[in-house]
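Throughout our pipeline, every protein is held as a single compact record rather than as scattered files. Such a record has a labelled line for the sequence and another for the backbone structure tokens. This encoding replaces a full spatial description with a residue-level series of whole-number codes. For reference, a complete record is included directly beneath this paragraph.
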Amino acid sequence: MLPGRLFWFWVVAFCLTFSGSVLPAVAQSQRATFRSRLDISVGDNPPFVATADFNGDGIPDLAVARQSLASISVMLGNGDGTFKAPTSIPVGTTPVAIAVADFNLDGKLDMAVANAGSNTISLLFGNGDGTFQPAVTLTGFTGPQFVLTADFNGDQNPDLAVANFSSSTVSVLLGNGDGTFQTPKLFMVGSGPMSIASGDFNHDGKPDMAVSDFASNNVAVALGNGDGTFRLTAALPVGSNPRTIITVDLTGDGTLDLAVVNSGFPNSLSVLLGNGDGTFQTARTITAGFSFPTSVASADFDLDGKADLAVTNCNSNTITVLLGNGDGTFQPPRSTPTGGSCPFSITTADFNADNTPDLAVAQSNSGTVSVLPGNGDGSFGARTFPTDAGPTFTIIADLNSDGIPDLAAANFNSNTISILLGIGNGTFQPEISIPVGLRPRSIAGGDFDGDGIPDLAVANSGSDDVSILLGNGDGTFRSLGAVVAGPSPASVTVADFNGDGIPDLAVTNSPSLTSQGRLTVLLGIGDGTFQTGVSFPVGTNPSFVISGDFNGDGVPDLAVANQGSNTVSLLLGIGDGTFQAARDFPVSRSPVGLAVADFNGDGILDLAVSNMDANNVTVLLGTGGGSFLAGVDFPAGITPVSVVAGDFDGDGRPDLAVANQNANAVTVLVNTAAPGTAILAPSSFQTAGPFGVGINPRSVAAGDFNLDGKLDLATANFVSNDVSVLINTTRSAPPF
């Protein structure tokens, strides 16, 4: 193979990087993190999430109410957007809200939990290390739906306010400063109080309250007297069934405004601008972009100095982001998928220490908390870039020779490929759409005509051919037509199989799901055309092919994942474009993806196989003689359909990233094997993630999209018709 004819194609760079020599001593393995949604399982029906620094390390942590399990989960932050495993703390029945303060003034944060089912408040006194003492129970409440803390009487002790849904009252409990509270004082509000916000609405230095009244469709405003009592001054009409209410200065005038989400019909957000004297302007209602909104949070998400809002939508499983204009109005709403089911509560903090607000969302029906890192422009998680319909495969290459990785995606449903030219900061120009054959499934690249410009080959499973696209050097392509490639070509790879310095093609063929598959090899002529293909038998329903020198003779060999026979076929190259008879190696159920790297640092290429129906990856260590040891399986998330190798955590060892089709995520398997390891252990790969992407990812590739020296990821998302880009945020590896 002539390396210069293939050097643009970043997807092969990992195989070259990790082959040919024993890996050097490596740093200790660490977490791999990406700027993408992180989903954390916390148990059944979490209706509320709060953030605070519970262990005093300067890093925001999370506390999540687990409604059906009568407990709170605490997750301590690692400072990189990930969290330690949740610890569970028993509380009362049906916990629905959490307030955080230092109730006993010992310098350690405590929690107050509203338990709607047992009509109690649970007090959890912190130990300062993220653990808590057993709950102390306060009684005398009626359907408490919310709890809030503030200093209502100016004695420097945190007090409590509790919304009693069943009695249409608010209970005020003045703190004694030792973790105990005085007898509750009640005042009436509207019907069905659901949430409370507090602030100084009239600039008198005394905290006031605003209460969302779910059943009476208004906001009750109660001005504080400074002694822990309040006077009800207004009942302001808002939308139907108001839920969460917050205080925020939306106009930058130093006066607090109100924002409340209304979950009744029509779903809406009401904004009430403060006049500074404890009164508010008539509610301005926004209806676009909501689907059963349940919670709202505020921060400057696009870093323009103006307050923005983020709203959870339970029915659409999205977050609506409203970027503020600074005058109480907003830009058109933006929608961000949450990845789970029924996002119900939202909070914001800088979880990954990048000085940009992030989001944490409790998803009630999926039992998860999703953490979405902010990008600083009002978007969250992995950036997405539109393609044509049904992208099923993507590769990374420098298609316009500017030194910046670009993307090419095969669009199965539109019979096109999309070219997305990289800008160098992790974003891409709008797609260039190029017609190809019917139902394209795979792309490979090389310099097929010897002009020094990258070209593309596209396997078209519906027209039984491979489209040849010659590059113009600027990211555009001209079609050279198509070459016959056997029945139902599913995957294509490029290498110089006959040693003439010209890239050749290998294509998998699957006449049916149960019949023996074939591998068609087409030798390049050097002008962009190819000789008639020669066919070699492989296993049943071959779905993927990859090239590598598995016996160390300097001649490219081929490995084929056979989905129907649960095997990998190895075809050793002879050097003239022909191959020895295939030898099959058993793997797990439905192998559909392959990656090549030297995973144990012995200088011999190994294989990683993604097994769609087994939810794992099989790693087969090469022996150097064209054979493999028995495979070792590693969990890899739900329906792993594609796998790529690269050093994602910067420790010098090739890791793996897997596209999880049915989970809308990517799982990373961090390589912890010591160099020279002869036999892999179950601990040789540790999972990180899952990291959220678009809907139904079918392919994953790796490249450095923002030119920071770290490998990023891209997925082709079949249902959402886009490519997700996950920027690598892993911190530098620690010294070893």
